[in-house]
Amino acid sequence: MSLIHLDNISIAFGHVTLLDNISLRLNGGERVCLIGRNGEGKSTLLKIINKDILPDHGKVEYNQGCRVSRLAQEPTFQSEETVFQAVAASLGEIGQLAMEYHELIQQLTHDHDPKLLTRLEVVQHQLEAQDGWLLEQRVETVLSRLQLPPDEKISALSGGWKRRVALAQMLVTSPDILLLDEPTNHLDIEAIDWLEETLLNFNGGLLFVSHDRSFMQRIATRIIELDRGKITSYSNNYDTYLTIKQADLAAEAMQAAKFDKKLAQEEVWIRQGIQARRTRNEGRVRALKRLREERAQRREQVGKIRLAVDNSESSGKIVIEAHHIVKSYDNNLIINDFSTTIMRGDCIGIIGVNGAGKTTLLKILLGELAPDSGMIKLGTKLQIAYFDQLREQLDPEQSVYDTVSQGRDTVTINGENKHVMSYLADFLFAPQRVRSPVKSLSGGEKNRLLLARLFTKPTNILVLDEPTNDLDVESLELLEDLLANYAGTLLLVSHDRRFLDNVVTSTFVFENNAKVTEYVGGYQDWVRQRPQEIKSVPVKKSASTKPAIVENTDIKPKTRKLSYKEQRELVELPEKIQQLEAELATLQQLTSEVNFYRNEAKQVGETLAKIKATEEALSTVYMRWEELEAMQ
Fold it and tell me: Are residues 362 and 469 in the same domain?
C-alpha cells in the first residue's frame, strides 16, 4: 500500500534547482535509502515530505491518517528539560500528563505534601480516561531500550546521547513513515546495531539518508539517488546499486560523447556560411539550435573532491610507547593498565561506546594529557595533524578562505605552491562560497574545510577523531583511498564499520572494566576475535562522560550456545516475569481505588515507590529474557 506519493515536485533556492520535477512513492514495509552528494537536496526532500517546507511546484499526497515523523541532522531540545520530559512531550497532551505524573512520582519519594497527592490523583484519573497508561509505559520502554536515564537533564548530554533522545521521541509516536536524516551520526557501534535491529522490525515506511555503507547495506530494500535534481530508483541493496550505478555512468558518458560529437559536426557545418542559409537547410539550422539548448540544459555531474596530504620527513621507527597507563575521572576508571607500542606506518582504529574514553586515550598517547599512572614515551621527528570531531579548530566568524590561507594567498602541498582558491576548489568550494563565514556552512562543508586545513600541514602522524560524520559517500571513499596510501602513522576514531575495515591494520577496543585491548585488523576482524563472554557493566557518570549509564562495548553474540546456567535462567525467566506483572497489577489496582489518595502521605509514597521499582525490575527481566532468546 502506498503511504505517500510525490508528484512532479520542484524547488529551487536562488539560481540553484535542487529538485527538478521528481516523483516518488513510498510503500508500507519499504526501507528506502536516499543517497546523493552533500548539497544535492536530500534534507530538503525530507522536509517537504514532513511538511516543514512547501515545494515551488508539484504536490504531496498522503494516505488517509498517515503519521510522519522526521529525525533532523541536528535535533533541538529545551536545555533544561529532562530526557523523560523531552520524549513524553512528543506525545502531545497525553505526553504532558505522563510527564507530570512522572514528576509527581519523583517528588513524592521525598516530599509527602498532601497537595501533591491530590494533584497526582487528578492526573492519574485523566490518564486512565484517555488510556494514557499504555503511552506512558511506551515511553518507559523506549527509554529502557535506548539506555536513556529519564531524569538526566538534556543540557548534560553529549551529541550522541541527544541523538538517542531524538530517536526515542520518534519511536514513541509509532509513526507510519519514519524520515531519518543521517541517523548513525554521533552514535557508537553498539547503538547503531540496536538501531538496525529496531528498523528491521519497523512495519511502516522508512526513508533515510545515510553515508554509513554497512548500515545502508543491512537496512535498505531500495536505493534512490538524487543526482543533479533528478531521482533514480534502484530496487536493490547498496552493494548491488554500486554495480548498476557504475554501468549507468559509463552509458551516460558514452551518450554524452556521441551528443557532443554531433553538436561539434553541426557547428562546423553552420560556419560554412552561405550554404547554411539556403531555404532547404533551415530545418537543419533549427535542429542545431535545439542541440545547443539541450547542451546548455545538461547538468554536468559535480566534480570529485581531490585530496592530498602534505607528507613531511619520516618519524622515528618507534612513534609512541605506552606502559601500564591508568586514567580516571571523578573516581570513574576510564583506562586500566594499557600498554602498547605504535610503530611508524601503523594504522590504528579506536573503537568504543560514546563516553568510553576514546578521545581521552588519544590525548594521552599524544602527550596532551597526563595519565594518573604509567608512562608515555614519544618518538623522534613527530609532526602531528589533528582532526577533532567537535570542529573546535574552526572559527565560526572567519571566512572559508581565511581559515585555510592563514594570511597567505598560496598553500604548499608536497613541495608545490597552489593558490588558495584553486586548493579550495579541490574540496568542492565554489568561488562564491569561499568568502562565506564558517558558521554558514553545513556539517559536510565544515568537515571538508577542516580536512582542507589539516592537509596543508606537513605531517607524519594523522589523528582523526570521527572524520566521516556528514561526509557524502564519494568523499568518504576518496578519504579512504588517501588514508590507505598514507605513508605516515594513523590514529583513527570512528564508528563507521566499513571505513575501519578499509583503512586500519589494527584496533584498540574499549571493553569491560575499562580494559583497552588491541586486535589485529579492522572492525570485522575484531568481531571474529573478540571474547564470547560479554557482560554489561554500568559506568559511573563523570564530568566528561555523560550520561550515567554506558552500555557494554560489544554486540550480543548470536552464534555461541547457552551455558547450562543460562539455559536454566531462560527457563525460569517467564515465571519471574509473570510474578512481577502480577505484583505490578496488584499495586496499580490499589492506586485506582477511590480512597487510595486519602491514606497517609507516607503510605501513598511507599506504594508509588514500589510501583516504580517493580516497573524497573520488570523492564530489566524482559531485556535479559530477550538477550538469552537471541543467543539460542
Answer: yes
